[in-house]
Specification:
mainly alpha, 3 helices
């Protein structure tokens, strides 16, 4: 983490933070529909699981 202040957050230090900049995924979750949610969950849940393992 380049920002010294944000780098002090324990979750960031451990790699237990998930922030996605993939516009397709962000839109699939924020403008959810019956078609977008299953796809988004398939993409996002592995990231959440990896972060949870580090928490």
């Amino acid at each position: 983490m380049r920002d010294p202040l944000l780098g002090q957050i324990p979750a960031l230090k451990r790699g237990a933070f998930v922030a996605d900049s993939d516009n397709t995924l962000v839109l699939a979750v924020s403008a959810a529909s019956p078609l977008s949610l299953p796809w988004a969950l398939d993409q996002y849940l592995p990231e959440l699981a990896a972060a949870a393992d580090k928490a």
